[in-house]
Specification:
The complex is a heterodimer.
Chain A lengths: L2 H8 L2 H6 L6 H27 L13 H11 L2 H28 L21 H26 L4
Helix pairs in contact in A: 3-5, 5-6
Chain B lengths: L2 H24 L7 H4 L2 H8 L2 H29 L3 H31 L5
The chains are: A mainly alpha, B mainly alpha.
Chain lengths: 156, 117
């Protein structure tokens, strides 16, 4: 068997991400970091498209009140606001969890490595990492509530 | 470019994106009410404020580089053959150039274009 074939057999790809078997909090955070990242990029591309209508869309030549009101008529409704709340939710999780990943990469929140013994819990993952995962979840929910109040209750 | 340097770019753009997007969000419902923030006249005044136009352009570049480089990293994790690596890297650069160009066009037209009816 060639080396490449052996690698192909061992590769689990996206199925490896989505199988929650034996997942711990860090592994779930890894999965959500990837999923939210792709979702945010999809939103950003859509946002590039809708903001371009401020200048009349792809064929526009300058600021266009009619182009902007056209795009507003499509997205400024309950469905559009619901999408924005979901975007804020995933954005905050991705941002705070991303800061955790950078801190871990730089070694700030990693515990001292030690020999792995039964019951084989990863020892490098300290309280700092776990805490930041929970902070990311709380921050995301709080931001989504804030977005709801701004968009549906007229606060802000 | 070495992967280690690309990861540093990924982390650098991540930190910059957190800062820039936070300010962007604060301007959409904290400093001014949301309804005012998305009004045509308010957005036009923001674009025509030189500082904020540069801010928007910087956010555009930072977020798109971070986003597409993130997708590149995911795709490299899924498969590691030489042709795949080459195509993914080339596609990433192309996607960044095209989307940044389109977003920059919006900024330039909003700043310098004449207001139509």
């Amino acid at each position: 068997m060639a080396v490449g074939e052996e690698k192909a057999e061992n590769r689990r790809g996206i199925r490896g991400w989505l199988s929650p078997y034996h997942y711990n909090a860090e592994r779930w955070a890894y999965l959500f970091q990837r999923v939210t990242g792709v979702a945010i990029l999809a939103y950003v591309l859509g946002h590039l498209g809708d903001t371009s209508f401020f200048v009349g869309g792809p064929a526009g030549t300058g600021p266009s009140p009619s182009g902007w009101s056209f795009i507003g008529s499509i997205f400024e409704n309950s469905f559009g606001h619901l999408i924005l709340i979901l975007v804020v939710l995933v954005l905050f999780f991705h941002g705070v969890n991303g800061v955790r990943l950078i801190l871990a990469e730089l070694g700030f929140i990693m515990r001292k490595p030690s020999a792995i013994e039964y019951p084989y819990k990863p020892r490098g993952l300290g309280y700092g990492q776990r805490t930041l995962i929970y902070v990311a979840i709380v921050a995301a929910v709080a931001a989504a509530v804030w977005a709801f109040l701004v968009l549906f209750e007229g606060m802000g | 470019m070495k992967e280690s340097r690309l990861m540093l770019i990924q982390y650098g753009t991540a930190v910059a994106a957190v800062a820039l997007v936070s300010v962007h969000l604060v301007m959409q419902g904290v400093i001014v009410p949301y309804a005012t923030a998305i009004s045509f006249s308010n957005i036009l005044s923001i674009y025509r404020n030189g500082f904020y136009a540069i801010f928007l352009e910087a956010m555009l570049v930072v977020v798109l580089v971070h986003g597409f480089n993130g997708v590149r990293i995911i795709l490299h994790e899924l498969r590691q053959t030489k042709p795949w690596t080459t195509w993914v890297d080339a596609g990433t650069v192309l996607a960044i150039v095209v989307t940044v160009a389109y977003g920059t066009r919006t900024v330039i037209l909003a700043v310098f274009g004449g207001v139509s009816a």
